[in-house]
Design brief:
The protein is of the alpha/beta class. It has 19 helices and 14 strands. Bound molecules: uridine-5'-diphosphate-xylopyranose. Keywords: NAD, Oxidoreductase.
Length: 435
């Protein structure tokens, strides 16, 4: 079986490499010629654990190839996946579908035989139908079916998530589309992964509803954490006590500085807009968007308050810049709000991130300094803020940290450290939602 994957971004690269690992012949196509050239030389443009090896092995086995020529790349493909970006449109927050539609039309024109065009990008409800109209208009002579196959992988654990998902969702309204997708995902049947076949609109909505629900769960616990601080409760015990109820579940109840990343901020906003346009507003999701945005700004104010009301002339070490660990992705990361605010308030920010510095540098104020290690960032600092819970930060010995710093303020926005141990080391330590 041969397939093509349009878009060598996160989803396209990971899904392409994983399908190849399933034994399918995959061509990953991207218009960015320098990206394709890099991939052909074995250089992976994103940091994702295990991806470099998976790509190398499947390229060597002849199952995975990269192309910048879409027309040649889709020739002979039984299925073509659209994994192009759907950024938030400037101004109105709707998903920008221009890349999806342009790619769909170009694919239709390039196809030489019947194929299934599968949307993997997260797209608003109704996009699948529009894609079908576009391809039918472009190629009335050819039998092109459309399907929706939203992707639920998480950055940092993308390969495991793709290979052992909780479920696969396929929206399709033709037997041929269902049959092609069933064949592609055959290895998952062997591990008894539920594969849910639905209508196209339903599949599209599942993705948004799932992401918005998870984002709501995070926002809920973040606000409960703030309440814990006021009433002297411990948010981790609250989360555990809630999460042990099987109807609630324990995951995604970890408080923090607000969610970021390529999906939650964009998808919550898009769902809120879609729902309003459809005359069925989901006000809880609108609130989640607003509360989460405000939270990131509040985090900077927390730092300033922890430093006695001013950071002017002070050096603040910031550990972790990416929106979560095990990625170099900075999209909607809390650091993009917190660091500029601290710089504006007169602080010298010394930042360290294990993988994200290169991506972060052009996105942060020019005055931001970058350190080579966590201890280097902490050296001589008045305060230390932990923004992303990279594992290497967990291993920092409080006493060494204390000896490196000039001041004694630590603000742990991911609740990585043990409050008692930090206080024993002489820190004025605060975290999220813990007494
Ligand atoms: C998410 C979804 O999990 C995935 O299914 C979808 O396909 C894409 O979006 P991702 O953005 O890679 O994946 O990361 P995820 O681990 O879900 O974290 C998202 C954000 O929520 C991060 O900023 C993270 O720090 C935050 N988060 C997550 C919390 O603050 N608390 C939690 O308990 C979980």
């Amino acid at each position: 079986m041969r397939i093509a994957m349009i878009g060598a971004g996160y989803v396209g690269l990971v899904s392409g490499a994983c399908f190849a690992e399933f034994g399918v012949e995959v061509t990953v196509i991207d218009t960015d010629t320098s990206k394709v050239a890099a991939l052909r030389e074995g250089r992976i443009p994103i940091y994702e654990p295990g991806l470099d090896r998976l790509v190398a092995e499947n390229v060597a086995a002849g199952r995975l190839a990269f192309a910048d020529d879409l027309d040649a790349g889709v020739r002979g493909a039984e299925a073509v996946f659209l994994a192009v970006g759907t950024p938030s449109r400037r101004g109105d927050g709707h998903a920008d579908l221009s890349f999806v539609f342009a790619a769909a039309e170009q694919v239709a024109r390039a196809l030489t035989g019947p194929a299934v065009l599968v949307t993997k990008s997260t797209v608003p409800v109704g996009t699948g139908r529009q894609v079908r109209e576009i391809v039918r208009a472009a190629r009335p002579d050819l039998d092109i079916e459309v399907a929706s196959n939203p992707e639920f992988l998480r950055e940092g654990s993308a390969i495991g998530d793709f290979m052992r998902p909780d479920r696969v969702v396929v929206g399709a309204d033709s037997e041929r589309a269902r049959e092609v997708l069933r064949r592609l995902y055959r290895p998952l049947y062997l591990i008894e992964t539920p594969i849910l076949f639905t209508a196209i609109e339903t599949a599209e909505l599942i993705k948004y509803a799932a992401n918005a629900f998870l984002a709501t769960k995070i926002t809920f616990i973040n606000e409960v954490a703030d309440l814990c601080e006021k009433v002297g409760a411990d948010v981790h015990d609250v989360a555990r006590g809630m999460g042990l109820d099987g109807r609630i579940g324990r995951k995604f109840l970890h408080p923090g500085p607000g969610f970021g990343g390529s999906c939650f901020p964009k998808d919550t906003l898009a769902l809120a807009r879609t729902a309003r346009d459809a005359g069925a507003p989901i006000s809880i999701v609108e609130t989640v968007v607003a509360v989460n945005d405000a939270r990131k700004a509040q985090m900077a104010e927390r730092v300033i308050a922890a430093c006695g009301g001013s950071v002017s002339g002070k050096t603040v070490a910031v550990l972790g810049l990416t929106f979560k660990p095990e990625t170099d992705d900075m999209r909607d990361a809390p650091a993009l709000v917190v660091v500029p605010r601290l710089v504006e308030a007169g602080a010298t920010v010394r930042a360290y991130d294990p993988e994200g510095a290169a991506v972060a540098r052009p996105l942060l104020p020019a005055a931001t300094r970058f350190a080579e290690s966590a201890l280097d960032a902490a050296a001589g600092a008045d305060a230390l803020v932990l923004l992303t819970e990279w594992n290497e930060f967990r291993a920092l010995a409080p006493a060494r940290l204390r000896a490196a710093m000039r001041g004694d303020v630590v603000l742990d926005l991911r609740n990585v450290y043990d409050p008692a141990a930090m206080r024993a080391a002489g820190f004025r330590y605060s975290s999220i939602g813990r007494p």
